[in-house]
Amino acid sequence: MRTVVVTGSAGLIGSETVKRFAQDGARVIGIDNDMRAQFFGAEASTGKTRDLLVQQIRGYEHHGLDIRDASAVLDLFKEHSGRIDAIVHTAAQPSHDWAARDPQIDFTVNANGTLNLLEAARKYCPEAPFVFTSTNKVYGDTPNRLPLQELEMRWEIEAGHEYEPGISETMSIDYTKHSLFGASKTAADILVQEYGRYFGMPTVCFRGGCLTGPAHAGTELHGFLSYLMICTVTRRPYRVFGYKGKQVRDNIHSFDLVEAFAEFIRAPRAGEVYNIGGSRHSNCSMLEAIDLGEEISGRKLTWNYEETNRVGDHIWWIGDVRKFQQHYPNWKFRYGLREIMEEIHRAVAG
Question: Contact 202/270 with Cβ under 8 angstroms?
Fold first, then answer.
């Protein structure tokens, strides 16, 4: 039986990964210590998802260790030495705002934790594909320098620009304001690439836009579509930060992202990088998301606008996924924006 290690296994992407590979008959070893509750409060806890995975997923083995603990990570990989077929690393501190409050915890979770996992993989399973959930924040605020035009409901890139289909991996990650979260994830991203290029390990960085789905425990600081729907359904006030509410994000369902992971694991490459997200297939502005959420839920959202945008926040992000599609032509989108929002509404209202 193949064994897959999943970090952040009770989170949105991690839990989807656990289910996906367990369904294929794999034994899944999950690592998750519910730091999300520490970051964002009890309502963002992954404890309920963890308990459901333990109860319902055959062959799932949970470990509440901290990926910052290098010895504990090494011991776990040593215990399963020779049996690990893939590592999917989704654990992270995911918020710009939180990182600024405690840069040391942010960096040690995102960068040092990734290094600990890479070293354990290099020592005990160097041939196992290593999938890292990176972020579009490695590009910092460089996207904000693109020629953007203000439309009625959104910002949009100038027609005919090379990034009109979406921003590709050719965009520089230098000379830009990343936010401290972006900096820690960039450090991890480069480490993952380097272990692939220097040691020849099958590693990949998936630089995601907004990753979402019905299992998302959205909060104001992280989980835009989920939190928006929570506020709409529960009549909780919602805040929009800057850019006239016309900032654009692409949104990818956790199912579609994990299918991309599976494609890479089937045919891995060394030190690869892909932008991944909803692309032109699934994207919206904040104002458009509010309208769609109200339409689906049948409720009006109470929201207010704050002129100051979040530091390093993107005005317009649509990722170009064509490089990944070229390398893995069997991968296709299953979910569009409306389907994503409808699933989130059912989960929140249910």
Answer: yes
